[in-house]
Description:
CATH class of the largest domain: Alpha Beta
Distance between the termini: 39 Å
Structural class: alpha/beta
Strand order of the largest sheet: 3-19-15-16-17-18
Mean pLDDT: 94
Amino acid sequence: MVLHQQAQLAMLPMRRRRVVKIRIAYGKHGLDIEVPDSYQPVVLRSAVDHPLADPQAALRSALRDPIASPSLHDIAARALERTSGGRARAGIVFNDISRATPNDVMLPVIIEELRDAGIRDEHITLFNATGTHRENSVDELRMILSDDLVRRYTIVQNDCTAEGVHTEIGTTAAGNRVKVMTQFLDQDIRIATGFIEPHFFAGFSGGGKAVVPGLAHLETILHNHGPHHMDHPDAIWGKTEGNPLWEDLAEAAALAEPVFLVNVTMTPDQRITAVFTGDRVEAHAAGCRHVARHALVPVDRAFDIVVTSNSGYPLDLNLYQAVKGMSAAGRIVRPGGQIIVAAECWDGLPDHGLFATLVMEAGSADELLDRLRGEDLRVRDAWQAHILALLRTKAEITLVSDRLTTGDIPQALCGWAPTVEDAIRDAALQMDHTPSICILPDGPLTIPVLPVK
């Protein structure tokens, strides 16, 4: 077989060619990659969003002057007036280890406001919004909160499969029976924290997601994350209005009101850029508008090869989470093209939950989709397997990871390469033309938007 000239070029050692050097997010320290400059790679990054000089002061100010809500101090003071003996209880929901939320910055400021209003430490409970994720270890809690917070406060983690710890509080218009942790519902003051970024099927993170799915029972999550939503064309990045999954989620979270929202936005290196507090709906909407201005990046065409990270630590902890980076790349890869995702995957596929079982047993993407769409299969993590299979029906997928290799991954759905350079070279060999390449160094923190046809 006679190789195309570009494929021949692809096999030459990197040192004999001029290259473009790009640093992408990977693990805690990043990854430097080299792309032949003959490919004229397009590098997409979000618009610059400058970090706050004093995030604690900004948080304090936002708590005292929130959006469409009384201040947190006033909410706490009124709760104390309503309860006998000044025993008002406050519950603060925080994100688990899979999210880069600056809990160690946010929670002390929130707690300071509560204490200033008269709420006692022993009446403050921290709720870990694990959703369907595993519980976090004590060491992990110390890492994402702080030694001081772990020592001083009661921490409750959501076990979505536990019986007798969730209360059914209503049914959404879509027929979702909403069950949320009873202990959170028993709090006199309910505070949901988080950070807002684009989300691959909910539109944006933050807002009511801290409550549902964060503190929800598995049955509620399975309904919201079902195949009818995964297949819906409006359950996509950057869209909440008209997104049936988000609207069901928001309606579910509303059943747990009143909830005071504390959300932030961040730079790719996880510094706070803005704070949005107050009414769960209006504060979140304001934050989403802010993120959209920076993270949604217009692109004029699709590409043969799209290289993406998964935003580095902590989001690239496993293949399950790396589907998010693949999904961002999938927006601009041409049909039949190649997605290359660099994710450390220190947590494996992982070995907890059902994602690994679903994808490793798959004989093909189409076979997996048929199974997931079957009425008899409603299991945790099916949604992530669903999105991975949808992406594989559009493009080839290659994982670059130094923690996983070929034998560890679902070969029917994705391949493996030791380096991004190897993955690009292998993809170029399969093409009869010079490939067009796009790089997403920050992964799903940057969401490409193609022109509407």
